Amino acid sequence: GTTNVGRSAFCRCENLRQCVLPDAIASVGEKAFWCCRKLELTTMPCGLQEIGDGAFGYTAFCGDLVIPDGVRQIGTVAFRETKLTSVTIPKSDGRINAGAFMECYQLKSVFIKDGVASVDGYAFEGCRNLTHVVLPQTIAYVASTAFKGCGSICSVCFSGQVSLQEIFPESYFNIGEINLDSSIKALSDGAMMGCS
To answer: Are 89 and 66 in contact (CB under 8 A)?
Structure first.
């Protein structure tokens, strides 16, 4: 059976509303559903391992998205400007690449499970209604711009003793509450500057 959706396979199919991806799908390629603006798919195949760059960018994904366990990589701008309200990112050995969820204006909560080590620049940029973020104990790096423009964040919780060594300026701009762990060794110059 089919195990992958190729690069740009359904790119700009602007009238596509539904697509059922079988559980055998392991990879969704770069821009596979890019700009399918009416596509409302909200579930992922349980066998999924890789989500390519821009795979679901500018689709009508809405509601709560649980990304399956076993996904090793979420590509750049993979879910850019979708209508998700919450996202759960699974136990894996992966990373959240640049701009993966940027400009998801309806996104309110993000729960990242153990195994994710890196949140790259602009990963959640412009998610202006994002209020709650949970980061796992395996997190080692959060880029300074990962949450840029997320002016509604009121809490960031680190789950357990984290590997994160340093918090950079703008990482959690405008935050109301942050729960720091003893494993964090440094706050960079201006790390919390402007938090009101």
So the answer is: no
- What is the tens place of the pLDDT at every residue in 35-86? 999 998 768 999 999 999 999 999 999 999 999 988 988 999 999 999 999 9
Asked whether the predicted pLDDT for residue 15 surpasses 60, the reply is yes
Q: Residue 138 has what pLDDT?
A: 85
